[in-house]
Amino acid sequence: xxxDTKLLEIIACPVTKGHLKFDKENxxxxxxxxKLAYPVRxxxxxxxxxxxxxxxxxxxxxxxx
Length: 65
Known about the structure:
It is built from 1 helix and 5 strands; from the N terminus they run βββββα. It is an alpha+beta fold. The protein is 12% helix and 26% strand. It is globular. Strands 1, 2, 3, 4 and 5 form a 5-stranded antiparallel sheet that branches.
């Protein structure tokens, strides 16, 4: 089983309530507004701010382009 990207249509960043993008390479959900990357573990998104890592400025720019 793999992460269902259709979930991106209904889930949102818990901090900003904004859109999330899926980083398939790192198995993370990206919120460029909050500058956070939420992990996806066992195909389940972990949408907890304390579990997220901060994005670098370069990562934010990459995901916004």
